[in-house]
Amino acid sequence: MIGWLSISLYQIGASAVVVNWSHYIVYFIDLISDYNITSPLVQAPVVWSEDLSMFYATGQVINLPSIVITIAITILLIIGIRETVILNLIFVVIKIIILLIFIFTCCIHVDRKNYDRFFPSNEGIMT
Length: 127
Hints:
Blueprint: H1 2-32, E1 46-49, E2 54-57, H2 64-79, H3 81-106
Antiparallel strand pairs: 1-2
Helix pairs in contact: 1-2
């Protein structure tokens, strides 16, 4: 019983993540192209509403991008661990590069006067 509950918990969590990834992909496609993606194949049939604090039906049929994402990740995991590790490494390197770009572009906006109190003045006597 505990195993089945764990499997259902992982499945619900994975489906929530994949639906959000699908939302990002649809939004990205909408940004970079003039193609209007409003077909009944790109949204989840059931969605959680923060305002109502309950699930509601969206009237959509199926979330096709999330199914494609799930199949792609499954195929990657079937291919092998080495390929999955390489892909994960690529994603980590991309994240670190983006963070470093953010840090170095924001360095010009740092006011050095805010750090004066943190560094002690050189007024002491060394013995």
